Amino acid sequence: VCSTHISQLPTEVLLRLFRYLGPEDLCRCGQVSSAWSNLSKTGSLWRHLYPVRWARGDYYHGPPADLNQEPDEEWVKSLQVEGKAYQEWDEDADVDESDESCEESLAISAAQREKELLNGMIQNLLPAVGSSVRSIVLAYSSTVSSKMVRQILSLCPNLIHLDLTQTDVTDSAFDSWSSLGACHSLEYLDLSGCEKISDHTLRKLSLGLGDLASPTCSEKRAERRNKRLKSPPSPISLFAEQFVGPKVKIYKERLARLGAAPCSPAHLWVLDASKLADIEDAAEGNQRGVFSATEGLGFVETQAAGDLCCCTRSRKRALRTGFRTSYWQQQYGFGEALCGHSTCCTGEKALRTLGGPQCESINTRVHTGAEFRTKCSSEGQWCLERDNRTVQSNTPRSLRFLSLSGCYQVTDMGLRGLSQLGGLPLLEHLNLSGCLLITEVGLQVLVSACPALNDEHFYYCDNINGPHADTASGCQNLQCGFRACCRSGE
Ligand code: FES
Fold first, then answer.
1. Is the CB of 389 under 6 A from ligand 1?
2. CB within 8 A of 216, min separation 6: which ones?
3. Does 433 contact ligand 1 (Cβ within 6 A)?
4. For ligand 1, atom 2, which residue shows the shortest CA distance?
5. Which of 8-22, 170-184, 226-240, 260-274 has the lowest mean pLDDT?
6. What integer pLDDT is reported at residue 406 of this predicted model?
7. CB 31 within 8 A of CB 37
8. Phi and psi for 248 in degrees, rounded to 5?
9. Checking phi first, is residue 268 left (phi over 0); if not, alpha (psi -120 to 50) or beta?
10. pLDDT tier at 227 (50, 70, 90 boundaries)?
């Protein structure tokens, strides 16, 4: 009987198996060997992080949309008790621990576990997988600090969902959003009950969401790239004679002897990789170091021989030009070989990015809610991306949900800041309950920059006669005992 030890399984198979595991099991697997440790730090395994739940034995790791948004009241209460016990213990650490009741010590150890988990995540996990992380839920955490949040946000630039409900964070937590487009992909931000948050955070948020008025560098680059791909193939750049190496000269002489000379400059198709920096195949070529003068000459020969692109060159020629061509041909057969050059492969078959032979070769990126998936062309299935490359939403200022409930320091200045740089065109849900210092004027400015706002999900103080007064929902904090409200106690 032939048996295979698990260590002999190919990496792709192991990764597929790892996808069935939760965070606890993945951490255990990471302790088996260095190979497993590396594999367990694959970005696609860590899309959604719930450290507060994980510290209490709930290892849910799916998208937040599949989770009940309203947490169980009992659960919230127990977290609040834990937080209080932990803070008291933390402030007065020299108290004789033997005096603590059993219940209190359990609460303290749960909070300590949470803090250790957060520190471990920041130091060991996020540096490896941060750019793949899409959601972080830290709601009701009693141990998360502004410094921790700042570190997390700078390690996770592609966040879509951030929940900091009822935490003790301050404005400094969002320092990494102080540059344009720093939280470009953010769609969901819950700061309910974060009482230390002020207008500074809203200004940073607005800046981080990007500027709709002037296109960002990445948009400009994408625009240039699209323009190039749409334009008919034409020589991109000619090497000036003084830059052509001796090998190229020898090949040119040989071509001349074969009758293809004189090569008119218009037929020279030597790609200058530096000018293709924004075309992915060139970037990939650069990474692999395969854009050599010889390969460039392969291009020259093909064109000179009759305007055929390198996709269709002969097997003999393909073998001569080395790894790159033979790789494509191994993958896709000789008859249908694709070179992968955006400039000569058009339509569906053009290869865009190369992530690995088994899955990512021909891919289509689709954004479904809070999840990015890559179509696996070889198997016709959807599978999660396995690499750790940076992915960003195409639309800046894609915020759809914003809750500042109980953030009583926020003023009209903050709302004005949010309305700048193009407003919030996709915002549907806005909760400003308990924002005691805002006025009708500030609300009006913001609402005029939020065309998608749904009145049913628009909450603000009942005492303000603001926009959509008849249809908007009122203050949500009237019945809430622990969030700011001008009518609390009535
Ligand atoms: Fe005014 Fe709640 S903040 S009614």
1. no
2. 180, 181, 184, 210, 396
3. yes
4. 485
5. 260-274
6. 94
7. yes
8. -65, -40
9. beta
10. confident
Cβ 462 under 6 angstroms from ligand 1: yes
Distance 205 CA to ligand 1 centre (A): 24
pTM of the full predicted structure?
0.64
Residue in 116, 124, 122 with CA at minimum distance from that of residue 147: 122
Distances in whole angstroms, Cα of residue 456 to Cα of each of 275, 411, 453, 472: 51, 23, 9, 6
Does the structure show a pLDDT above 70 at 3?
yes
Compute, in angstroms, the gap from residue 197 CA to the centroid of ligand 1: 18
Cβ of residue 480 lying under 6 Å from some atom of ligand 1: no
Tell which atom from ligand 1 comes closest to the C-alpha of 478: 2
Q: Which of 433, 438, 439, 443 to mutate to test the pocket of ligand 1 (most atoms within 8 A of CB)?
A: 433
Residue 291 has pLDDT above 70, yes or no: no
| Ligand 1 atom closest to residue 475's alpha carbon, by position in its atom list | 2
- 93 alpha carbon – ligand 1 mean position (Å): 38
